[in-house]
Write a structure and sequence with these properties.
Number of helices: 6
Oligomer: single chain
Strand order of the largest sheet: 1-2
Distance between the termini: 30 Å
Mean pLDDT: 77
Low-confidence stretches: none
Radius of gyration: 20 Å
Shape: elongated
């Protein structure tokens, strides 16, 4: 259970500094950050699945929950620009696929039009959707 005492924080300018973490938390917190870093560039759903599994460290569950939520908020900036505009890419790809009747040809043509590779285009195709960001 998260108690009021664990939610202590201070405000310094535009920064909110959590005071529920201390030097004794550095070890497990660095391991939690490493877990997040392992999934950099991968779909969000893969990290969410990993976070359902046991952590490779011992810590107070309430602290881990708060730290995990803070990391999600910091790292999952919904307003960050995407390399490609997925909605536009999908529209172009589906139109090209309908016209050419060949998935590979359509993918190659659209990738060229977006100055991208077919693999990169595939990876970015649904990157605007929450679990894929």
């Amino acid at each position: 259970m998260i108690t009021e005492a664990i939610l202590l924080q201070s405000v310094k300018g535009d920064l909110i500094v959590p005071r529920f973490l201390g030097t004794e938390d550095a070890s497990w917190l660095s391991k939690l950050i490493e877990e997040f870093a392992r999934f950099d560039g991968k779909p969000r759903r893969e990290l969410l699945q990993r976070l359902k599994e046991p952590y490779p460290f011992e810590a107070l569950p309430a602290k881990v929950t708060l730290a995990t939520q803070a990391l999600k908020q910091m790292l999952w900036n919904e307003n960050r620009p995407l390399p490609l505009r997925p909605k536009l890419v999908r529209q172009a790809l589906f139109t090209a696929a309908h016209m050419s009747k060949c998935k590979e040809t359509a993918l190659t043509n659209v990738a060229n039009a977006f100055a991208s590779s077919p693999d990169e285009l595939n990876q970015q195709l649904f990157s605007d959707l929450g679990p894929e960001r």
